[in-house]
Amino acid sequence: MSDVQIMTGNQAAAYGVKLCKVQVISAYPITPSTPVTETISQWVERGELKAEYVRVESEHSVMTVCVAASTVGARTFTSTSSHGLLYMCEQLHWAAGSRLPIVLACVNRGVGAPWSIFNDQQDSISQRDTGWIQIYCRDNQEILDSLIQAYRIAEQVYCPVMVCYDGFVLSHTMMPVEIPDADRVGEFLPPYKPHTILCPEDPRNINPVIFPWQRRDAEGVLRDGYMDMRWKLQHALEGSRDVIVEVCREYAELFGRDHGGMLWTYKTDDAEVLLAGMGSIATEATTAADLLREGGIRAGVVGIRVYRPFPRAEVREAFHKTPAIVVFEKDISYGYEGALSADIKAALYGIGIQTPVHNYIAGLGGRDVKANELAEAVRSSLAAIAGGTREQQTWLNCVTE
Amino acid sequence: MYEVIWHGRGGQGVVIAAQILAESAYLQGFKGVTSAPTFGPERRGAPLTASTRISDHPIRTFSQIEKADIAVVLDPSLFGIVDILGSLKPQGLLLINSPQKAEEFEIDGSWNIATLDAAAVAIRFHLIKEGAPMVNTPMLGVFSKASGLVSLEHLEKGLKWKLSGGAAATNIAALRAAYEEASIRK
Looking at the structure, do residues A277 and A152 belong to the same domain, yes or no? Predict the structure, then answer.
């Protein structure tokens, strides 16, 4: 019998962690992610989750604990937001460089100055180039399911995974979530096998200073230089696409929910305009597409689920037939455009696609984004495209004078 | 889809009432339910809102409610402070904690109104927290009677989901009394 409960996104994340039998959790509280580890700490305290919960003085130490625990063979987890994620920045690079399958729930929140506790995706987008896989969730069910999938992916490709979801919009909104059967999750997710085991019986030095060139070690074996190792990380992320898709497919077979692998589509087959986004704004866009269709405009939605590795082939496939693309996103690469918009354009380069791409920066610092506003933005973009405006950046609901 | 806004003050159980309504509606068979607090910090005594969406289909909108179908007012002193009517649809249903009967409640506009002296019901059933009557459960009773959207039976299940045994029993008794005593003007 299915066990459906009404829960917040943060509770859904905590249940995912529990079902994965995570062994070490380290965390430092920050709004809006705090309830994730608060819930987990209660389970650990009551003995419902046999794990070690390590409290530290900062997020930098949190990720250091995760790196250490993962290195000695423990399945590890943390969650954070905004400034917490940024305070981890150095150790995020360290986790990826060490090829450790740490899973982090990033509860997306804007970044200061000035202070904001509210939602946008600037925090995780700004950590795009750390070597972590990034998954963006569209509702609370996908948060729980993606966390379980994240450990399978991470432990197969030896790369850390960030499961991102919008602060407050999902983290504090309750909705029905089906909790999968624990035994079946156990079958889906085999125990973590570390690539290197660090233990007193076999002492070794991990991640010492490395030279630019390849070099023989004490046993005379030729070892990678820094750049060779960096290529392996890039190769691992590029190769993780197939694993992500396969894990998603297998999960769908076992649990009956298919979140789409690298991306998902909504009413795209006959679409004359495609809306694109990541996370809850993409969910809102599906409602906007329905509104547009009621008004005679055949709109569809492409939700980018995995942002790194970027779904280059899937994006080409999804967008190659559409006459117009409108990208809505809650981030900005200052001095250029929205990160997703730039990446979608780059993916379409060189295959003869000349589709206009309009970029809307929306919902920064928690500014509300309504479906009818997205629909209105699409109408205005279609008019501009008909008038010959191929590229356009608009800040939605923002004073720009 | 039905959209409900709860108006109250920090400490009145506004958020919990919105959650219990969502849970109860789901138990009754609505496939799509969400409940959300006002996003951000909460302060005791300060005006705040929470929302519940109820639909036959899974909900694909998480934005703030613009115009609600139903507004539940836990504290009538908010009328002068918060634009309660501005976020309610014309002909919308207005549920007010007030000792006045619905017929007597003076308010401009074409609203469907139901009232209950929820504070009196809360005091009668000893639903008191830190000296203040907890009017949220009685207002759920008013909601059920006036809207007909979620049944008393399922609200009772929702209360059992959120509350422990003793507290659930007292709240259910207050819920039933509120349902009986609510005054409705159509």
Answer: no
CA atoms within 13 A on the CB side of B4: 28
Pair A44, A161 in one domain: yes
Report the distance separating Cα B175 and Cα B124, nearest Å.
12
Q: Look at residues A134, A156, A188 and tell me which one is the last residue of a structural domain.
A: A188
Decide if A133 contacts A344 (C-beta within 8 A): no
Q: Please give the Cα distance from A66 to A104 (Å, whole number).
A: 10
* Position A1 confidence tier, pLDDT thresholds 50, 70, 90: very low
B128 - beta bridge partners?
A: B133
Question: Bridge-partner residues for A113, per DSSP?
Answer: none
Residue B60 and residue A173: Cβ atoms within 8 Å? no
Q: Which of A341, A330, A302 is nearest to A395 (CA)?
A: A330
Q: Is B108 on the interface with A (CB under 8 A)?
A: no
Q: Which residue of A has its CA nearest to B41?
A: A117
Name the domain count of chain A.
2
Of the candidates A23, A68, A65, the residue with the CA atom closest to the CA atom of residue A191? A23
Domain for residue A125, yes or no?
yes
Residue the block writes with tokens 């150095």: A90
Range of the structural domain that residue A93 is part of: 3-188
User: Domain boundary at A160, A188, A216, which?
Assistant: A188
State how far the Cα of A168 lies from the Cα of A165, in Å rounded to an integer.
Answer: 9
Is 0.85 exceeded by the ipTM?
yes
CATH number of B96's domain? 3.40.920.10
Distance CA A124, CA A163 (A): 10
**What is the CATH classification number for the domain harbouring A324?**
3.40.50.920
Residues B93-144 have pLDDT tens digits of 999 999 999 999 988 888 999 999 999 999 999 999 988 999 999 999 999 9
Q: Which residue of B has its CA nearest to A32?
A: B40
Asked if A176 is an interface residue toward chain B (Cβ–Cβ < 8 A), one would say: yes
A108 interaction partners in chain B (CB closer than 8 Å): none
Q: Does A254 touch chain B (CB under 8 A)?
A: no
Give a yes or no: residue A208 inside a domain. no
Residue A171 sits in the same domain as residue A286: no
Instruction: Determine which of B49, B51, B62, B65 to mutate to test the interface with A (most A C-beta atoms within 10 Å).
Output: B62
Domain count, chain B: 1
- Check B63 against A370: CB less than 8 A apart: yes
List all residues of chain B from 36 to 65 with a beta carbon under 8 Å from chain A: 36-37, 39-41, 58-64
Helices in A46-115 by DSSP H: which ranges?
A: 59-71, 82-87, 89-97
* Structure confidence by residue, pLDDT tens digits, A302-311: 999 999 999 9
* The residue type at B53: R
